[in-house]
Amino acid sequence: MSQTTPSQLASDHRPLSAGQWETVIGLEIHVQLATKTKIFSGASTAFGAEPNTQACAVDLGLPGVLPVVNEEAINMAIKFGLGIDAEINQVNVFERKNYFYPDLPKGYQTTQLEKPIVGAGHIEITLKDGSTKTVRIHHAHLEEDAGKSLHEDYHGMSGIDLNRAGTPLIEIVTEPDMRNAEEAVAFARKLHSIVTTLGICDGDMSQGSMRFDVNVSVRAKGQKELGTRTETKNLNSFKFMEAAILKEVERQIDLIEDGGEVIQETRLYNGDTGEARSMRSKEEANDYRYFPCPDLLPVVIEDSRLEKLRAEMPEMPDTKKARFVSDLGLSEVDAEILSGDQATAAFFETAAKISGDAKLASNWVLGEVSKSLNAKSIEISDSPVSAEALAGLITRIKDNTISGKIAKQVFEALWNSEGKDADEIIEKKGLKQVTDTGAIESMIDEVLAANAQQVENYRAAPPEKRGKMIGFFVGQAMKASKGKANPGMVNQILKKKLDA
Question: Which end of the chain, N or C, is less packed with Cβ atoms under 10 Å?
Answer without folding.
Answer: N
